[in-house]
Write a structure and sequence with these properties.
This protein has 437 residues and is an alpha+beta fold. It has helices at residues 96-99, 214-219, 263-273, 275-284, 289-300, 306-317, 331-340, 356-365, 367-387, 396-405, 422-436; strands at residues 5-10, 13-18, 22-29, 33-39, 43-52, 66-71, 74-75, 94-95, 103-112, 115-124, 127-138, 142-150, 157-181, 184-185, 187-192, 195-196, 221-244, 248-255, 323-324, 329-330. It folds into two domains: 5-255, no CATH class; 263-436, Lysozyme. Strands 3, 5, 9, 11, 12, 13, 14, 15, 16, 17 and 18 form an eleven-stranded mixed beta sheet that branches.
Amino acid sequence: MLSNSRMIALDNCEFFYDIIGLIKVKKKIIEPYRHIFEIFESGLVGIFVSVRCKAKGQDDLDNDEDLRVEINGLSFRENSPKKNIQRFNIAPAFNGSKLRGLKKKIIFLTVLKKGENVIDLIPQESAFVESIEIKEFSNNQNLNLLINEKAEDGDRRPWITLVLVDLPLKTLGVDLITRWHYRDGDDVKLIIDGDIQKNKFSIFNKNWLWASSVFKKILKKEEHSKIITTKLSQGIHYIEFWADKTPVLYNLKLDIRHSETIAEEKASNIIKKYSNQIKLSAQELSVDPVVVGAVIYQEQSTNVNFVDTLSDYVGGLLSLNTSIGIGQVRVKTAEGLEKHYSELNFIDKDDSFIDSNMARVEKLKDPFLNIKYVVAKIHFSLERWREAGFDLSNKPEILGTLYNIEDVDDPIKPHIDSKANEFGKGVGKIMRKLKVC
């Protein structure tokens, strides 16, 4: 449906205010395009963005068209961050050299607060925005995304990307149709966090999970229904569908839960996934990465249920001092740390359209930024106590306790008879295990 909406022009950026639903933009943009929309109930939301980008040389273009998306100030980057950050030539963006004028759809699944929220479409050169659609899913952990999308005819290129923003995924169900077209057939590739899902039944098309076969020549049409066990831990995940010819994707079924039933197993998997980022972030402030890993492990081992995750997000969005992300960083703690660590000032405070608390929660959803806050909180305690004459570098139990209970704006006075609480004792125990490993 097309909802009531209005467009506002401000400086070099266009703003589109929308209640909720489908808005057909149908416009070429050369400057950032802002879409402000209203959510009726805090919870899980789907943001569907369809865009076309052309390659260099098409229509006499001197450069490729590209476009990236920000949600409430949260930008996306390559799945395994490197020193040179990539924002355009990645799965959650639109890249003209790959699309060559064809349409791509990106579906962002995230938790948003009731009220106004913001999407920014940021072009490089230019881009053609087809549509933006907003759907509310409340707190439903079993989703049926009725896509019903036929790929435009083209050779092996990105088609539909699903972006999970700090969410887990236990299984992914896919319903699609492929057809045979005279000398060629429809093919679909599936890439999950950079890993191509292999086709075990094809010799020549191993990288295309649903590939053309001799049976397609006979049947003309094949209907595919497949359940894929993804076992994705809480984090930002990119699930890409690439198309060859004109397949049709009808439905995506998502079980948005942790696959692990044992808390410790979930925590271990998260530490393994983000071990490199933990090491890099810890190195920046000269903090022991094993302590950082132990703190994250302890936090994650107490938060398994998806409903708890949603409750945490909603609480944070309502300005309550709840915990967010893989390090379970409190919103007020993050705000306090930003006053002491300039490298944590990711929020554009001059943007009056984005509430700073809302933007802070969005940043905490990014595991790579969340880890930086964890490191900063540990460093904050280490330095304060060191300046007072107490070296905590070999006392993970005390560091864990301070991480758990200390208020950055009203910190605990360093003292000689410090004792560990249960959280801190757990950190010490985990750290000893991690060092053995």
